[in-house]
Design a protein that fits this description.
By secondary structure, this protein is an alpha+beta fold. It folds into three domains: about 10-120, 2-Layer Sandwich (Beta-Lactamase), CATH 3.30.450.20; about 120-195, Helix Hairpins (Orthogonal Bundle), CATH 1.10.287; about 200-345, Histidine kinase-like ATPase, C-terminal domain (Heat Shock Protein 90). Helices cover about 40% and strands about 25% of the residues. It is built from nine helices and twelve strands. The chain has a five-stranded antiparallel sheet. Strand 4 (about 95-105) and strand 5 form a beta hairpin. The radius of gyration is 27 Å and the shape is elongated.
Length: about 350
């Protein structure tokens, strides 16, 4: 089919484009925004966007970069191609986007046509894949370490038992006790490095119910720490390994209580959004330095002085094994939030 004498409605093409399209004036206000642009920013009315400064939708740290880019487009007729930035949506939400900007001519004036593609899900999928690959590699290394260390320790344990049979000494009991702790640590490392060794069936799980069950184990902590539960959409069910989730939630809530120390607040949220079950565990504890957050989930890396890091490794492994995603946001002295997203699946 050819369009010959028929008039092409370019405005309709732009208005219904899957990409967000903004038209920005020389005073940096948004003069036009298509439907996709409005949806991206999570606004209902064009009045919330049109004739508003573009800087209202951008973090302050990239205002200068944005201004110089718009200057290049409108004054020097340059094209900005594939720039990855973060934009501010309604209610303070963030979105990772890829944009390009080209000159738009109207009479003797030049505007900036900004074309935006939301890549939040794409980046999340890449991060999830990278995390899985990292954990898989670490798992192979950890399994090898367990094998190499366990053999000599087994020999030491055998000789220690022979010595105890011929003579008794309290130091020998202490040595045996510490040796058992080493074996226990190795077993935990093996479990988190090869979660498939736990041959647990997939069953329907109510995460709300499991969160309540785990919280009951910390009754003594709840006398000094304020606990807020905001559990919505309790009827949403995921399919997974029940005991792995119980252990993961136990590790997360235990970490939160330990971070709070004596007094503070722990908030646990559960809700359903965009096909995913969300669990957020927030504490007002000591927080985690930014340079350490990216290392969380790595075996034997811990922000605690006496921690092994295996608890969080189990959490990350469990979430990724179930096709989910986990993010951590924290501020030293203010607290930490763990955000888990899991797909709702049918049996």
């Amino acid at each position: 089919m050819k369009l010959t004498n028929e008039r092409i409605d370019f405005h309709q093409l732009v208005e219904n484009s899957l990409n967000s399209i903004w038209l920005v004036g020389e005073d940096r206000t948004i003069l036009y925004c298509n439907k996709a642009g409005l949806q991206l920013l999570n606004y209902q009315s064009m009045e919330d966007v049109i004739n508003k400064s573009i800087y209202l939708f951008l973090p302050k740290k990239i205002h200068s970069l944005c201004n110089s880019g718009l200057t290049r487009v409108m004054e020097f007729k340059d094209v900005i191609d594939r720039l990855d930035i973060t934009i501010l949506k309604n209610h303070g939400e963030l979105a990772e986007v890829e944009l390009m900007a080209v000159p738009y001519y109207s009479g003797d004036k030049v505007f900036a046509q900004v074309i935006i593609q939301d890549i939040t899900d794409k980046k999340m999928a890449i991060k999830r894949l990278n995390d899985k690959e990292k954990l898989a590699s670490l798992g192979q290394i950890a399994a090898g370490i367990v094998h190499e260390v366990k053999n000599p320790l087994t020999a030491v344990k055998g000789f220690l038992q022979l010595i105890k049979e011929s003579q008794s000494h309290p130091y020998l009991d202490t040595m045996e006790s510490e040796l058992e702790k080493a074996f226990d640590t190795l077993q935990k490392l093996l479990q988190v490095s090869k979660p498939d060794l736990q041959d647990e069936p997939l069953v329907p799980i109510s995460l709300c119910q499991k969160l309540n069950m785990v919280l009951l184990l910390f009754q003594e902590k709840m006398y000094s720490v304020e606990v807020e539960l905001d559990l919505k959409d309790a009827n949403r069910i995921i399919i997974g390994k029940k005991n792995l989730f119980l252990k993961a939630f136990f590790n997360l809530i235990k970490n939160a209580f330990e971070a709070i120390n004596d007094q503070g607040k722990l908030k646990i949220e559960h809700y359903y959004e965009n096909g995913l079950v969300h669990v957020r565990i927030s504490d007002t504890g000591e927080g985690i330095p930014a340079d350490k957050i990216k290392m969380l989930g790595t075996p034997f890396f811990s922000s605690k002085n006496d921690g092994t890091g295996l608890g969080l490794t189990q959490v990350y492994t469990t979430i990724h094994e179930h096709g989910g995603n986990i993010t951590v946001s924290s501020e030293v002295g203010m607290g930490t939030t763990i955000h888990i997203q899991l797909p709702v699946k049918q049996i």
